[in-house]
Structure formats: C-alpha cells, structure tokens
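Record type: monomer structure entry
Structure origin: computed from sequence
Chain ID: A
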Amino acid sequence: MGIASFVKKQFIDVLQWTEDGDDVLAWRFPTADLEIQQGARLIVRDTQMALFVDQGKVADLFGPGTHPIHTRNLPVLTDLRHWNKQFESPFKSEVYFFSVRQRLGQTWGTANALTIRDREFGAVRIRAFGVYGFRVGDPRVMFRELSGTRDSYGLGDLEGQLRNTLVSALTDHLGGSLVPFLDMAANQEALARAVLGKAQPAFQALGLSLVSFQIQNISLPEELQERLDERIGMGIVGDLPRYTQFQTARSIPTAAANAGGAAGAGVGVGAGIAMGQAMGQAMQRPAAPAAAAPVGTVCPRCSTRLDRPSKFCPECGNALA
C-alpha cells in the first residue's frame, strides 16, 4: 500500500452530505477506521445541520456553512476530551448530518372511528383524515430520543408514531369540544389549529417541529351516514302535500312515455295533474263529521228508541253512528 493510499484511508479532510432523496432525516458520516484531521472542512448545506458526538455524548452542533475543524470551534468536544486549546492532532469522532427542511404532504387518518359526545346526536362515531408537515427542530434532542447511533434514520421509522400522536391530539380535543358534528365542516380550520397546538409539545419532545396540520375530511361511518341522510331527507320533505305534488310531477314524463306518442303525453300530463290536484286537495280537505242516527233508531245496548237524531244513546251513552 502506498503512502498516498495510507493517508487517504486514515485521515478525513472533508466532511459533507449530499442528500439523494427525501426519506432520510439523519445520516452518519462514515468514520470507521478513519480520523478527522485538524483543519479539515465541514460543509453543511442550507437545509442541514451537523452534530459531533463523542463516545455517545452529544457535543458540538453546526449550522449551514463551511467550517474549519479546530479545537477553538469544538468547545464541547474539547472539554469532553480535556484537550489543550492548541491541540492539533487528528482525532476520532462521530459526525451526524440532519436534514432540517420541511417534510410536507405527510398523511394522517383515523384507523378506527372515534367515539365522541355530540350535543345533537348524543354519542357519535366519526372518521377524519388530512395532511401535515414537520421538520427536524433540535438535532440534539432527536439524536437522544430517536435516531441514536444508527447509520441513517428515515421517515418510515417514525411516521406511524407521528400519526398516532396527531390522532391522539384530535381525539383529546374533540372529547372536550362543544362543536356539534354538523358544524365541524364549517370549523375545520379552527379545529386544525387547536390540534396543532395540542400536538406540538409531543413533537418537540422528539426534537421535531410540527409546522402545519390540515383536516381534509370529517365523516361518519357508512351505517351512521345512512341514518343521517334519512334525517336530512325528512327535514327536506317538510310540507308533505307539496312533496306529494312534486313527486307526482316528476312521474309525468314516465307516464307519458308509457302511454305512447304525443297523445300519450297529453294523457299522462292530464292524469298527472289531476292526480296531483286530487291528492293535494284530499290531504288539505278536513275530514267529514260522522252522521247522526235518525229518529226511531233502537239502541242495541239498552233497546231505547230515539225520539230525535243523535250520535249517542240518551240513556246509556252508547255510540250510534
């Protein structure tokens, strides 16, 4: 092995990460069997942060820019190693890069319907889904709580946890909310803001920041939606005579087509109009009073003969009409 190969293998003079996808949140620079040379360059891009970790202990954090590696800009690592401020020898350390740009369009949803109390319906089960966005907020906390010493840590490693956190915050808010189900659609924006506020501390505890939360749909399970549709339909019907006339009018084209030709259409129209008028008048006409029993009628209960028209027997009160 030549001297050039030996030096290249043993010392690192440039540390950087070129992201090649959207799924990786944290990536460890490969430093196995290598040492970082004093004066090496650390290149951190605008959407990244870099964290030095010494023997599992979080040390110095760097933001975007090109940073020369010296003891003077590694104060935490220098203290951990008990270095003299002029120490200039190569050293071993783990360097983790974090992608801090926003991850938008992440989906969430209720795997099972949520049971909540409703002022109008009592207990009701609802489903909801939408999208959210987040970013790495504090790489130090994320390293301790999530990524650790893994070679890489991606979206797939925590998206299930984040969805559960959001659904839990939604459930908690709806449990104490006074907004009835029928008004939720008109209050989705306010509801989303409230859930974002409730879920934010849980994200921060993982070193993340919840930057957006949207509710795209709130609905009932299919069987409950059918019951609601029936209730809405009854409310729309309202005036039953007018609804009957409307339904009759809708049946006229079908009746005309079945009767055949233009004459059939005329017959169908006439029959439909007559039917609608008859049904409307029948439903609006008051019921005729019952007729009185004539003079001479004998009560079947007490055999009393009436001397004047009456609906009831004057002796026993038996109904005669």
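Annotation 1: Residues 146 and 206 are 7 Å apart (CA to CA).
Annotation 2: Residues 292-321 form one domain.
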